[in-house]
Design goal:
The protein is of the alpha/beta class and 223 residues long. The chain folds into two domains: 79 residues, no CATH class; 129 residues, Cupredoxins -  blue copper proteins (Immunoglobulin-like), CATH 2.60.40. Helices cover 34% and strands 16% of the residues. The protein has six helices and nine strands. Strands 2-8-7-4-5-9 form a six-stranded mixed sheet. The longest helix has 21 residues. The chain is elongated. This is Phytocyanin domain-containing protein. Keywords: Glycoprotein, Membrane, Metal-binding, Transmembrane, Transmembrane helix. Pfam families: Cu_bind_like. InterPro entries: Cupredoxin, Phytocyanin-like, Phytocyanin_dom. One of its GO terms (molecular function) is metal ion binding.
């Protein structure tokens, strides 16, 4: 499940309105009414410009904080299901970007291998890119392109524990990698990510605190 930065922004707006002793509606009115009827170049007009500039900067920072944490299969987790296409259908329904991460939830009896396109089609682990053998691994999507994941335990991939996904680039991490090209071969690594994985929202708590502080500073101009 994704974490929406716009929801966090709305929450901060509500908190700041309460801190300033007003409602969200009144706060909007105060922002939009500043400077009306004032002569160009007046102190009040300068306040409006500073306020709007600060709000634009805050909006830009929020846009950069939209990395999403996905739990593969949502509440189903990473396991054998009744449908051989369950995980592929789940992946096809998502939108992945550079900086997002995937959490594969399973207790035991499974693993996660990132493999080449050829191995993915054959349910093979001959050309493994990376393997995750500790329960509940978190896989960071660090570059644009296509990723291929399988469960390497005998027979599990054939039963549907496999999925491919396409990761789009973003403004800060452009990529020219064709969508159909698998990730470049890298040395085989064994990942030992922390368990259990943290909540997606907790990763943005410090960012929210910084932005809230910025909004409170802007609010001082309105009082």
């Amino acid at each position: 499940m994704g974490v929406d930065a716009s929801d966090l922004a709305g929450h901060m707006f509500e908190q700041c309105a309460g801190r300033w002793g007003t409602t969200e509606g009144d706060l909007v009115v105060r922002l939009t009414s500043l400077g009306k009827g004032s002569a160009p170049g007046s102190k009040e007009m300068a306040t409006v410009r500073r306020t709007m500039l600060a709000m634009i900067m805050v909006a830009g920072l929020m846009a950069g904080a939209s990395a999403t944490s996905f739990t593969v299969g949502d509440t189903t987790g990473w396991t054998i299901t009744s449908s051989a296409t369950f995980y592929q259908e789940w992946a096809d329904a998502q939108k992945f970007n550079v900086g997002d991460d995937l959490t594969f939830l399973y207790a035991s009896g499974h693993n996660v291998y990132e493999v080449s396109a050829t191995d993915f089609a054959a349910c093979s682990s001959t050309n493994t890119v990376a393997m995750y053998t500790v329960a509940n691994p978190v896989v960071k999507l660090t570059k644009a392109g296509e990723y291929f994941f399988i469960c390497e335990v005998a027979g599990h991939c054939d039963l549907g524990m496999k999925m491919s996904l396409i990761v789009a680039g973003n403004a800060t991490s452009p990529s020219t990698t064709p969508a159909a090209t698998p990730p470049s071969a890298t040395p085989l690594t064994t990942a030992s990510p922390p368990a259990p994985p943290p909540s997606a929202a907790s990763g943005l708590q410090s960012f929210v605190a910084v932005i809230a502080g910025s909004l409170l500073a802007v609010g001082a101009l309105l009082l």
